[in-house]
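Objective 1b: paired records.
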Amino acid sequence: MTLLLFVALCGMASAASERVVFYPSGADFSSKVKTDIKQDVNGDYVAFTLTGQAVPDTFTIASLTKGVAINDVSWSRSDLSRSPAAIELGKKIDQLKFKRNAVISQKQAVDGGIAFWKERGKEQQIKPSDLGNIAGQVVSNLSKLYTESAKLKVKIDELQELINDLIRQLKEMSGGGKLIWNVKVSVVSKGAKSADFKVGYMLRNCGWTPKYKLDAFPGSGKVEFTFEAEIYQGSGMDFKKCDVALATVKKRSRISPPQLGIWIIEPRPEPEPVVARYAMDEMNMAMESAPMAKSAGSGMSFKRAPKRVSKATYSLWEMGRKSIPAGSTRKYAVESETWKSEFSFIARPSLTPDVFVSSKTILAEAKDYPAGIALMFMEGTMIGKKRFSFSGKEKKLFFGSDPMLKAERKTVEKKSGEQSMFGSKQTYNWKYKLELENSRKSPIKVLVQEPSPISGDKRIKLEVTTKPKAEIKDDNFEWLVEVPAAGKYSVNYAVEMKAPDDMEIDLGIGK
C-alpha cells in the first residue's frame, strides 16, 4: 500500500496543528497531519514537498496511528521553476508584461500627439481670420491628450505592480531559490486507509532579534521596560495561524566547556638572544593566527500576553497563534513591565564634568533577555542607543548625564622636590579640589569617585589626606555627598609621595 502526504509550500495539507519556534538564527517547524494511504510498485510511502530552506538532516517523522510504522526516508531536489504552479505564474507574468508593453506603446503615441499640437500652436504663418479656430483646436486636442496620457500612466503603474507581486510570489515559493526538497518516506500500513503523522524540520533564513526600550524616572524610582521581538521570515512558506514561540538560545553558543589551562610556577627562563626572540615572536604570531581547535507590516496586538517558559539553559517565549507570511519582517510586543529601581548619581571629575544617572534594579524572579539594541530614555526623552542584555535578578544601568549637575576637578598643587639638602629622598605632592554644582530645586546625593594611588614598591611611601574622609573601594576614593539645592559642595584630597632619590619613578596618571 502507499501513503502520500503532501506538504505544500504554504503549509501542510490537512494539517491539524502547526508550531514554529524561532531561534536567533533559524526556526524549528513541526506539524501534525492526517493523510490518505496510497500505494506504488515499491510498497507503502509518503511524499513531502518542502521549501528549499528546509535542512534535510533535521527532518523527523513519527506515526501517530497504531499499526502504521516508518521504514526509511530519502531526499531529492527539484527545480521549482518547472513545477506546474511556477509555470502558471510565469505565464501570468508574461501576459501582464505583454499588456503593459501595449499600454506603453499607446501612451507613446498619445505623447507624440501632444508634441504635434504643441508645435502646431507655435506656427507663425496663420491667417488672422483662422487664428482663433486654430487656437481652439490646439487647446481642445491637448486637453484630451493630456487626460488620456495620465490615464495610461496609471494603468502602466497598476500592471507593473501586479507583475512585481507575481515575481515576489515566484521567489517566495522556495525561499528565494528555485529548488525544493522532495521527501519520500517508506511505511508499513497494514491495510490502513489513512494515518496521522507528526513531522518536523529546521528552516534556514529565519530568526528573530530582540528590541528593547528603557525609560528612567528617577523622581518616581522606576524604569519602564518594553521588550519587543522583530521576526524575519524568509523560509519560503507561509505560517498560517501557527503556534509561535521564541527561544533565547545564543548564536554559536558552545556545546561543551573550554579546556582548563595548566598552572605551572617555575623560575623565569634566561632572556633569549635577540635573533631567537624575534624568531619565537614570529612563531607565536603564526600560532595565534591559526584557527583554534573546537571542543566537542507590524502587528503589535495579541489576544493574550506572551508567556515565558524557563528551560535548563534558555528561555522560551510563547507568543500564541499568529500568521506570518513568507518574506515578511514583523514586530511583536513580548513584555512590558515597570521595574522599581534605586537611582544614584555618579561623578568622576578627573575624567569628565558630567554627572551620570545610574539605576539598580532587583527583580523578584530571574530573567533571561538576549543581547539586543535598547533605546534609552530619560523621563520620556531619548538619550541614545546601547547594547542590552539581562540574565538574572539584578541589573545596573546608566542613563546618560544629568544636565542639572556638574563636577569639576581643580589642581590646587602639584610639585616635586627633595626632603632636605642632605636628604636621601625624593618627594612629590598633589592637592586637588573637587567641586560639585547642583542646579536643581532639591538636594541631590552624588557618589564621587577618583583613583586612589597605589605603591608599586615597598620603598615608595604614600600619605593620603581627604576631606571629608573617603572610603577606598576597588583602588578608588569614594565620597557619598549631598549637594544642596541650587548650591555647591567641595571635596578635597592630597597625596604626598616619598621615595629613594636614585629611583626612576613612573607617576602614572599623576604626571
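Objective 1b, second protein:
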Amino acid sequence: MSIATLILGQSGTGKSTSLRNLNPQHVLLIQVIKKPLPFRSADWTYITPENKQGSVLVSDNPQFIINVINGSKRPIIIIDDFQYVMANEFMRRSAERSFDKFTEIGRNAWDVFNGAIGAHDHKRVYILSHTEEDNQGKTKIKTIGKMLDEKITLEGMVTICLQTSVINDQYVFQTKNNGTSTVKAPMGLFSEDHIDNDLNEVDVAICEFYGIPNPQIKPQNQQQQTA
C-alpha cells in the first residue's frame, strides 16, 4: 500500500512551489493543467518521444493517471491541480442534462484516489488540489458539487492531509486541524503546527516515519560518520 498525501490550498498559496527542492529524477509530475512551474525549473522537463527521461506529463484522464501511478518506477508521483480532473470532465459534459454525469465524475475521482493508495508499498503519491468552504464554514477539497460530497469524503481516504497558509509573508503547511479544516497527520509525524511549504522535507519526514527507503535520507551510521 502506497502513501497518499493531500496538499490543499487556495491558488497562489504555495502548493506547486512546494516542489522546488525535490529531485525531478525521483519524481513524476502529472499536470492536470499544463502550466509553467512557479520556480526556476530547468531540470523539470516534459516527457516526449525524444525525451523519455523527463519528469512531467500532462493529462486530465483518470484512467491514464491511474496507469501512470501503477506503471512508473519513480518513487514519488505528484498530481497537480487534481480538482480539474473533475472540473474539466464536468465542463466537457455540461450540455448533458442527466445527473448520471455527477455519479460518473465522482467515480472517476474515487478511482484516482484508490490508485494513489493502492500502488507499490514504497511509493508516495501527493495530490495537490484547491479548497472551498462548505455550508458549515469548514475548508475542504474542492469538488464539483453536493452530490459528490454526499457520497464520498475524499480526505477520508488518506491518512495525511496538509493545507497551505500564508502567515507573516511566510508560506507554510498547516499540520494540525484547527477545527475548521480537514487537516490531519499521524501522531508524531510533525512536531510543529506549521512547517515550511517544502514537499521534499515532507517526503523525508514520511519516509522516516514509515521506514521507507529514500535516497535523500542518509543511513544513521553514515550520518554519525559525517557529523
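The helical segments are 62-71, 83-92, 100-117, 146-151, 199-210, 220-226. The first strand starts at residue 3 and ends at 8.
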